[in-house]
Amino acid sequence: xxxxxxxxxxxxxxxxxxxxxxxxxxxxxxxxxxxxxxxxxxxxxxxxxxxxxxxxxxxxxxxxxxxxxxxxxxxxxxxxxxxxxxxxxxxxxxxxxx
Length: 98
Ligand code: SF4
Fold this sequence. Notes:
The protein is α+β, with helices and mostly antiparallel strands and 98 residues long. It has one domain. The protein contains four helices and two strands. The chain has helices at 15-21, 63-66, 75-80, 89-96; strands spanning 30-34, 40-46. Strands 1-2 form a two-stranded antiparallel ribbon. The structure holds iron/sulfur cluster. Iron/sulfur cluster binds at residues 22-28, 73, 85, 88-90.
């Protein structure tokens, strides 16, 4: 099997390669508070489906069906949204590639 270079653009990665970037830290699965000026602040309130010990989603394979607020993190989404933590592996990959 031919492997892509580690410096490949995020959009060139296969779905599996993209999903393997995720560190499974669960930081994106906590509620956010939006200030009046638009500043987004993370809270310590987890999504009801996040196992806070293992940091795994309890309903991962059907998360979009059970929680309409769950967002599929594609390269385009990661590039656009402001609420992902700076330590998110996707954020680092996207910003590291600009
Ligand atoms: S914050 Fe990023 S690296 Fe952590 S679980 Fe969420 S998507 Fe994965």
